C-alpha cells in the first residue's frame, strides 16, 4: 500500500474530525449502563466503586521511522478494566478517532462480555491514534512493533492478551507476537489471538464474531415466532463482522436487503445476492456501485423497514435523535456501543427487541479464548469442533439472558448486564482486597 503525503519530523498525530462518531462520551455511557445494573442488583457500594473504574491505564507516546526518513510520534493506549476473573483480554484498534475514554469504555464492555459468556477473562482494550490507510505496509509494521514494545510491560499470555479490532488484522497480531517473542527469546503464540493459522491461529476465528451474531439473531427470531425465510436484514458496516453476518444469515434463509461501508450503502428491497456482492467488494473495495441497487447513507440504512437491523460499524449510531425512527423488529448489535442509553429506552418502549453488544458480538472473543487455550496446550481443534463449541456457548448465554429478561422484567441489555455484573461482583467479593 503506497503511503500518501509526507510527514513532518517529530509531530504528534492529530485525530480527524469525528464526523461518524460524534455523540455521547463512550465511557460515560458504559458507566451509566453499569450504574443501572448495580442499582437493580442493589450492589454493595464498595464493590460498585471498584467495578466502575478501570484497574490499569497505560498511555504511550512513541516514535516511528517513516519511509521518507522522518520520525513521527504516535499516541497509543492499553486499558485493563478488571482482573478478578482471570487475565485481561481485548482488541487493538488503529483509528484517527481513538480516545482514552473510548478505550476505557471498550475495556469495561469486554469485562461484561467475558462474564456473560462465562469465560475466565477480564476486559481490556487498546488503540493507536492513526490513519492506517495513509501508512505504507513497512510503516504499519514499524508502528505495530514499537507499540507492542511500549505495552509489553503489561501484556503476556497469563497477564493480558491482545487481539485484532478496527483496522488491525492477523498480520498485525503476527507482528505483535513476533515482537513479544523476540523480547522473551522464544516463541510465545498465546500472547495474542487472531493470528494466522501458520503461527498458532485458530480455525473459525475470522468469521467467529459474525457467526455469533447470526446464532443469537436466529435464536431471537425463533423466540419471536418469525421464520428466517420471512426475515429482511439491513447491515450497517460491511467489514469483517458485517460481511460474515450477512453471508451467514443469507445461508439461513434471510433476505439481506441493505448493506453499507464507510463510503455509503446500497439497498434493494427484493434482496441482495450476497455471494456476488462479496466478490464485488473484493474487486472494488466498496459496496457502492453494485448493480440493481439504490444508494442510501449509513444513517438512512438504520431507518429502513426491515425485520433485523445489524449495526456493525462504530459506536453511537442509534441515539435519541433517530431511535424513534428505527423500524426494525430486532436490533442485533454487531458493533461495540452502537446504541446510547436514551435510544435503548425509546426502542424498548417501541417494542424493538435488542440483542446487546456484550452478547451479540461475543463470538469473536469466544473463539479467541479457544485459540488461547489451543496455543497453551499445543493441541488444535477442527473448524467443525470450533463452530459447535461456539454455538453451544452463544445459545446457552442467549437463553440465560432471555430468562433473566423475563424474570426481572427488564430489556435484554439490562438482563445481560445483570448476569455479567453479578458474575464479576462475585469474583471481586471472593478475592477481596490485597493487602
How would you describe this protein?
The protein has 435 residues and is an alpha/beta fold. 43% of the residues lie in helices and 16% in strands. The chain is built from 14 helices and 12 strands. Residues 1-21 have low confidence and may be disordered.
Tell me the Rg in angstroms: 21 Å
What's the CATH architecture of one domain?
3-Layer(aba) Sandwich
CATH topology of one domain: Rossmann fold
Count of individual helical segments: 14
Question: How much of the polypeptide forms β-strand, as a percent range?
Answer: 15-25%
Question: What is the assigned CATH homologous superfamily of one domain?
Answer: Leucine Dehydrogenase, chain A, domain 1
* Major sheet: arrangement of strands: 9-8-7-6-10-11-12
Topology, number of strands: 12
How does the major sheet shape up?
7 strands, mixed
Low-confidence runs of at least 5 consecutive residues: 1-21
Shape designation: globular
Provide keyphrases for this structure.
single chain, 435 residues, alpha/beta, Rossmann fold, seven-stranded mixed sheet, five-stranded mixed sheet, 14 helices, globular, disordered N terminus
What is the strand and helix layout of this fold?
Layout: H1 26-41, H2 45-51, E1 56-65, E2 71-80, E3 88-95, H3 100-116, E4 122-129, H4 137-151, E5 160-164, H5 170-184, H6 208-224, E6 232-236, H7 240-251, E7 255-261, E8 264-267, H8 274-284, E9 294-296, H9 298-302, E10 308-311, E11 330-332, H10 341-349, E12 353-355, H11 357-360, H12 363-377, H13 383-408, H14 412-431
Helix pairs in contact: 1-3, 1-14, 3-14, 4-5, 6-7, 6-12, 6-13, 12-13, 13-14
